[in-house]
Amino acid sequence: MSTDNGYNSAEYLVDKFLNDILRLSLIYVRNLEDAQDISQQVFVTYLRKSPHFESEVHAKNWLFKVAVNLSKNQLRSKKSEINFDDLEGVLSTEDEVLDSRTDCEEAVFKAVMSLKSIYREVIHLYYYDGYDTNEIARILGLPSASVRSRLARARKLLEIKLKGGESVGAEL
Amino acid sequence: MLEQNYRNMMNRIKADDEFRQQLLNRLENEREKCNTAVSRPSFKRYIPAVAGIAAAFVLTLAVFASRAFIFPLVDDEDLAVTHKNTTDEDGTILGVLDNNTGSDLNANISEPDVETEINENKTVADMDNEATGTSEEICTNDTQNEMTDDSADEINAETQTYSIVTYSDENDVLIKGLATAEETIEYNTTLHFMFEGFENYGIGLVSNDVVFEKSLPLMYTLTDFFSDHYNTIIGENGELEMYDGLLDTFFNIRANSVQQINVYINGLEILNLDNALMSDFKDMTDVYFVVSVT
Fold first, then answer.
1. A66 contact residues in B (CB cutoff 8 A)
2. Do B131 and A105 lie within an 8 Å CB cutoff?
3. pLDDT cut 70: percent of chain B above it
């Protein structure tokens, strides 16, 4: 195993970012099996490219970019149909506390997952990973104005869905 | 609320121990493969063979080039190429010989397959480019694919959200308290505005781009700007009959209204508009505002 410590060690990066990578991949491909494959491939790519990171933030951003690229490749090669049954398998656990998700949480989650990928990715990076619009723009390779525009549009679509204007299963 | 609900659900998604261990095992295997590749014979031992093939290629190329460039200078009769077929005993043509050069015109010359070294001297920018080397292409293609998947209405909706309004001194009649004698700053900046939350109050505002060419006092603040110019900011040059009163409540920051806007510039929230000067943007060609109400 690598003798490097910290954010230039594969083991550290797996421990620190695997869940984030898995969640980000899931946003794109919307099924757990593909998300797991992509997550593995992200770290294999890290080993093969052998980048040297200046900071933990640098490491995270680099891994995220790879995850985004691989996920989009997957989307192009295989149109992903949303599978809420599969997501149910991901979300349910034997832990009573974790399984006590509210209807509201589930509705929000399904609403986000039913959006087009260009909206899902900005919603996830902004609201879950806490990136600002400029950072999201760098990760996705977009102008900042496009990110802001997509965020605004995504919020509007979510509002419509959650207020009952659209079926959660429909993709706009 | 939306954010918290989404976070709660996402937090439930985790890699289990089995998957994590599987990944670590795979990474270990990959590392062993990489170590094995490094210990293979160096590329340098192949240089003599590569050099020989390259030399043969160059020589053949020179021969063909000479026929194109040198022979035209010679008498045409000398250029007559007689092809002599080589055949085996039963007459099957085995090849076509060029009498002048003796070379087999059917010979295929291909570039040698040269193994390249892995460049280990990478800059941070190079690594970022590797991670994103195809991202722009992918992003571009993905955007294009997404756009082709959109309905025509969606595409039209996207292109209708921006309008360019040129605003200059000639049209301005709303500035209050502008002192003409004091030092002023010339602005030539494009201000981009997006609006959030106004729909909750029945106000439909669309994104607006304003080419801002004005002279303003040195100490002109964002409070002054939003209070004085909100009609321009929201993209309306005249009075707003339906929403004027309510919008005035939001934007007339000087009046310390209860309901006021939150302003984000290039993603950062400006907490005190009184302390932010327009002169901070005088050298910028584009400034991006998000104006929200809750």
1. 131
2. no
3. 51
